[in-house]
Amino acid sequence: MPKDGDEIPVYIPELPSYRPPRVGGWVIALGVLVIVIIFLLFLSIYTVDLGYAAVTVDPFTSEVSKVPVVGPRIAFKAPWQQVKKVYIATDAIHMWTDINAAKLGLGSMVGEYPAIEALTQDGLQAWVDLTVRWHILPSAVPKIVESYPALDFEEKLIIPEIRKITRDIVANYKAAIIPEKRTEIGAKILRALKEVLSKDPSTDGGIIIDDVYVRNIKLPDKFLQAIQDKLTSQQRMIAALYERNRTIVLANASAMAKVLEARGEALSRIIIANGTAQSIKLLIEVGGKPEDIIPLIVYLQGLKEIAASNATIILTTGGQQVPVMLPIQGGKG
């Protein structure tokens, strides 16, 4: 039996030491190869969305692929090549300025670009609001990328041409007729833009103008007020001329009525005179004396006129008796 202070031996079994399995060099190389392949595939695959066309650019040779990839598609390239995507579907450029909004304190209301300032044939300032619709031919994308690596052809080519052509065309019109020629001006801008861009060497004529809408041509307020005043004066002049012609027509009608009335009265008197002469002739033929017949005819004619005028006839015997006054009611002849 052990005593206090005696050492007691303890047996601890020895455990085998752990050694991880060795990985061969070929396994590491295979893993690295797989990662590299995945990375290269990631760099070599690209997608092109609907409405876009893409070309590749080789930074070592500066070559641009000649055949564009039109979306939607998944395409491949060399890992070191860059991809340039160009929007080829129908696009629009809006160039307008709402001057009234600025006057009302609503801020500067403009489209993508401000309205085009131009001078008319008579030197008056005008602001042209328009919208241009256009698209790009896929076959022209490689040339466009070569000419405009930053794809800034809209700012460097299309917008300057629109402004130049619009100003040149507006300069052929006088300010007074510009508002009514808006459609004609838009058609001329369309034709000129199509002609210029179809011959542009930097794009191989690949930018196609579809339509031009001239929304408004704003002229200075003072000029518009002057036109309004002129129109008002013209309207007043037309009204005065109408009133003058009306007065002349009425006066002519009144004069003609009086002429016709006088002519009718003269004809009436001639008829009456002819009738009276015929009556006298008949009385003479039956034995009457002219010196007795004529005073009688005159007397009867006078009585007829008195009766027609609602007058009063006074009868007297020629003596001292009081004359008799008899009213005669007018009647028809």
Helix content: 40-55%
Q: Per CATH, which architecture of the domain at 91-219?
A: 2-Layer Sandwich
Question: Biggest sheet, open or closed, and with what strands and sense?
Answer: 4 strands, antiparallel
Q: Return the string of H and E elements.
A: HEEEEEEEHEEEHHHEHHEE
Anisotropy-based shape: rod-shaped
> What is the highest CATH level, the class of the domain at 91-219?
Alpha Beta
Low-confidence stretches: none
* Backbone structural class: alpha+beta
Compute the number of helices: 7
- The whole-number mean of residue pLDDT values reads 79
Distance between the termini: 188 Å
Beta-strand percent range: 15-25%
Radius of gyration: 56 Å
Within the CATH hierarchy, at the fold level, what is the topology of the domain at 91-219?
Answer: Tetrahydropterin Synthase, Chain A
DSSP strand count: 13
CATH superfamily of the domain at 91-219: Band 7 domain
Can you walk me through this structure?
There is one protein chain. By secondary structure, the protein is α+β, with helices and mostly antiparallel strands. The chain is 45% helix and 20% strand. A hairpin with a 5-residue loop joins β9 and β10. The chain starts with 24 loop residues before the first helix and ends in a 6-residue tail after the last strand. 16% of the residues are buried.
